[in-house]
Amino acid sequence: MTTLFKHIKELIQVRKEPVSFISGKEMSELPTIKDAFLIVEHGLIADFGPMADCPKGTFSEIVDATGKMILPSWCDSHTHLVFAGNREGEFVDRIKGLSYEVIASRGGGILNSAKKLQHISEEDLYQQSKKRIEDVIRLGTGALEIKSGYGLTVAAELKMLRVIKRLKENYPIPVKATFLGAHAVPEEYKGNKEGYLRLLIEEALPKIAADNLAEFIDIFCETNYFSVEDTELILEAGKSYGLIPKIHVNQFTAIGGVQTGVRYEALSVDHLEELRTEDLEVLKNTSTMPVALPGCSYFLGIPYTPARKMIDDGLPLALATDYNPGSSPSGNMNFVVSMACVKMNMTPEEAINAATINGAYAMGLEHKVGSITRGKYANLILTKDISSYGFIPYSFGNHQIDQVYLKGKPFLS
Length: 413
Known about the structure:
- The protein has helices at residues 88-95, 100-105, 110-119, 122-138, 154-170, 193-210, 228-240, 257-263, 277-283, 294-300, 307-312, 333-344, 348-355, 357-361, 391-394, and strands at residues 2-12, 32-41, 44-50, 61-64, 68-72, 74-79, 141-147, 175-182, 216-221, 244-249, 268-271, 289-292, 318-319, 380-385, 401-406, 409-410.
- The chain is globular and about 70 Å long.
- It starts with a strand and ends with a strand.
- By secondary structure, it is α/β, with parallel strands linked by helices.
């Protein structure tokens, strides 16, 4: 099947030569073609260019995009989309003045979600997660990573990972799975964190590897959760099973986790709301992608990742939703892009680069999605009739999507 999109007002994120990611000053450059065409063959981007060069021929379908724009679908590299129920009660508690840390110390937070997930059936968990993935696809997400970490028992963590695998099999978008067993210490291991880490390493990891349930390994490296030494232990064990490291780091405190991530060649270090000069410096000239999660900052009222300083100092940056029930209960990448501009002082060009090509890199998907490049999946956003791509972050709360295409086909579910 061959589809022609014609008279595209502006074709955005055009990369004729593949690039892995964009850093520093280059993040302000967003290559586009005005009055463009795009040809999709067998689900892949086959050709594009100005309408003056549009080839004549027979096409299975022709989409007239007059007045509309096309850009690659969002690449959300950090989500916890598979979870049970919600934590709206904690939302009210925070409004009344309780901090996230206090709520967690009282058995809320991650432990609250874990209790719910441990008791839900795998089928019910899949059905809840199915609705969420369809929602985020409709909001323009065309690739995403999903973490475990709300199970906190071997059986429940495996249940989460099996649901993620099922989503990957049933939806036409790339889905990456991350094992985040070291998300918090469960109540039954209180005072015995070492025993819990041994459980993850000796019992969970072999089963995950045997059933090919994850590509990445992650840990919450944070005060009152897991130390740098714990992080080294988990990342080393994960790598021994072929899992690529990622880290939750510097969300509330900076304790050296960024340095550990770089040393273990983590694909990404995520959160970074608290970033010291030494953390920034160690990230320079590495293959580790910093990932900002502004939805979490918005919802918890904590500082935003210092994007302006990072980009001005030459670093790359990706944006993701951190979609989860406790600290960022939204998978809307359009809002994330808007927050990046409004709250993190990023330009629309920088934010779109961070939410597409850099987000793809943070999942190891830069060769498949994230830009308008020949041979990549035709995972696309066709906008409404808008004045410029700057209108996307400007119109926060109102997405400007007319249709989402996955491998060249409209997503209709």
